[in-house]
Amino acid sequence: MKKLLLASILVLGFVGASNATNSAEKVNVYSYRQPFLIKPLLNEFTKETGIEVNIKFANSGLAEKVEQEGKYSPADVLLTVDISRLIELVNKDLVQPIDNDIIKKNIPAQYRDSNDLWFALTTRSRVLYSSRERVGRLGEEFDYMDLAKPEWKGRICTRPGKHAYNVSLISSIIANHGEAEAKMWLKSVKANLARKPQGNDRGQVQAISEGLCDISLGNSYYLGKMLNDNNQKNWANSVYLNYPGQKANGTHVNISGMAMAKYAPNKENARKLMEFLTSNIAQKMYAEVNFEEPVKSGIKRSDLVASWGQHTADQLPLTAIAKNHTKAMKLLDEVEFDL
Asked: Are 183 and 331 in contact (CB under 8 A)?
């Protein structure tokens, strides 16, 4: 009786993006991806299939939430950003394999789990934004490691080091340069900060536009978002987007991805949604609406993203980045980066 009561509470507590939570044709999505980023795609899925999509958004703790709910979880599809978060779901045994020919055909092998437990949907580059007025373009010689140089003292802004986007970048630096050099780099970058790490990637571009710093770390797609926001267009127009590492290891690239929840109650609808998210139409929407780079072969970048230039991505396997996640977190603590 207690188990039945718990199941009822969990289902009733599910916060949906639509009012059709009692519909027989539904699929429940738990997402680290902000609703405004994915709602256009999910609306298109509903339009095509008639299946309502209920979204529960999490700033943090998504894996912990699903783990706590256990087999009574209403979650069908888990959407997340960063390979480390996908690996966390796998390590906690919160996902199930989906052996699907359509998805496998659409997603290259390098962007999916060898046991079919997760699949990438887009790639995103960790770029550098530089002040048009005070810095100009950084040039293809510029590498992440150059942020440690004394010439940048008091000129760098970044969101907290322990945010997943920065942890993965640091993990890639550990993989490419070793733990000791990565620690020295972190110390030097901290010494070069214009202010304590804070805010989000857009906030760093705002800081550049306001003259608080001259250069910042950020994901590439945010530039497109800012250029299409009348309140933020001035921030975007104050910076250049630069792809670091073009003469070194390449630009650090991470992914957004998906997995099917282990106890998905609407498994067939979850499969349909996952297939849709790898389809031409969804991959094009990722490119045109979200300014991300699709993983499906043959889908072009948006004209705006293409205007930012070509770049070579770091060829590190995603699993190598995830493997160094714990080391990166340890180094951040050791140098007290966020304090």
From this structure: yes
Cβ atoms within 10 Å, residue 310? 8
Alpha helices in the chain (DSSP H): 2-12, 35-49, 62-69, 83-91, 101-106, 164-177, 179-191, 201-209, 221-227, 233-236, 267-277, 280-289, 303-306, 318-323, 325-334
Per-residue pLDDT band for 24 (boundaries 50, 70, 90) equals: low
Output phi, psi for 46, to 5 deg: -60, -40
Report how far residue 79's alpha carbon sits from residue 10's, in angstroms, rounded to the nearest whole number: 19
The identity of residue 6, as a single letter, is: L
**Cα–Cα dist 219/202, whole Å:** 9
- Are 166 and 321 in contact, with CB atoms under 8 Å apart? no
19: pLDDT strictly greater than 70: no
Return the closest-CA partner of residue 7 out of 73, 52, 61. 73
| C-alpha span between 167 and 165 (Å, rounded) | 6
Alpha-carbon distance of 61 to 66, in angstroms, equals 9
The Cα 124–Cα 256 span in angstroms is 8
In the predicted model, is pLDDT for residue 86 greater than 90?
yes
The structure tokens listed for 108 are: 């290259």
Closest CA to 129 of 156, 111, 104: 156
Separation CA 172–CA 159 (nearest Å): 18
The amino acid occupying position 51 is I
State how beta strands 156-157 and 215-219 pair.
parallel
Burial of 11 (0-12, 13-18, 19+ CB in 10 A): middle
Per-residue model confidence as pLDDT tens digits over 209-245 = 999 999 999 999 999 999 999 999 999 999 999 999 9
Q: How many CA atoms lie within 13 A of 332 on its CB side?
A: 21
In angstroms, rounded to a whole number, what is the distance separating the alpha carbons of residues 289 and 167? 26
pTM above 0.90, yes or no: no
- Residue 99 tokens read as 């052996």
Q: How many CB atoms lie within 10 A of CB 285?
A: 18
Helix or strand run (H / E) with residue 204: helix 201-209
Q: What confidence tier does 34 reach under pLDDT thresholds 50, 70, 90? A: confident
SS3 298: coil
